Amino acid sequence: MWAYIFSIAILAASIYALVQGAELFINQSSALARKYHIPEFLIGITIVAFGTSLPEFIISFIAASQGNVAVSTSNIIGSCIANIGFILAVTALFGAIKINKANLKFDIPLSVFSVIIFLVILYFTNGQINWIAGIVLLVIFAAYFVLVYFREKNKSMESTPTHAKIHPFLIILSIGLIAAGGKFAVDSAIDLAGLLHISNGFAGFTILAIGSSLPELIVSVVALKNGKNALSLGNIIGSNFFNLFFIIGISS
């Protein structure tokens, strides 16, 4: 009994550290980006999406380095499903998500298509993402963000004052929280899976996927409530690309 309680407590504390670390990182990164008047959607799809995807990256990278490929891959796939089926739905409960024509014609279809591309690569590699497939994923990732950058760079962003100050110490602290939280989240989830006699893959697909997706949910809801619709949508779309192409590409 105590083993269950201990594993659950460590997992909950780890996820909390991940969320707090991601929030700190996002606040600091957004403050820096806004100083140079970067378009809101571009902030959301790059800096904020990267920040909220850091938990998935740390969890998957650590799991892969420990030889737990099932945890690494299932965590990413589960997180992408959570982004589209859970986070987008819950965020919409807090207000209407306005989607412009560019997002409707390009970003959203490509976000869905990215999952198909990934599954095709997974099929032709017999479920094993080697370094060659990893390079292909990273090239696709880079190509998408280059396209978005050139599309968004000429758009002006309103000068919105921000109360967040840029502190290098907080950036270092946020990375430390995310790294430590990711390490203990992987270890406790694997321990819990063993106690419950379930596979590591299932644990990654459910417990870790939902837990590591909490930063995306929190950021998207808060951004929408603050009137930052483009930031909220960009975070959800960008997180899927980071998860599927960057994180798995690097982890391979």
TrEMBL record:
Keyword vocabulary terms for this entry: Membrane, Transmembrane, Transmembrane helix
Subcellular location: Membrane
Record's keyword annotation contains Transferase: no
Recorded superkingdom: Bacteria
Gene Ontology terms for molecular function: calcium channel activity; calcium, potassium:sodium antiporter activity
Bilayer topology annotation: Multi-pass membrane protein
Listed GO CC annotations: plasma membrane
Protein name per UniProt: Na+/Ca+ antiporter, CaCA family
Natural source organism: candidate division WS6 bacterium GW2011_GWC1_36_11
Lineage, top ranks: Bacteria, Candidatus Dojkabacteria
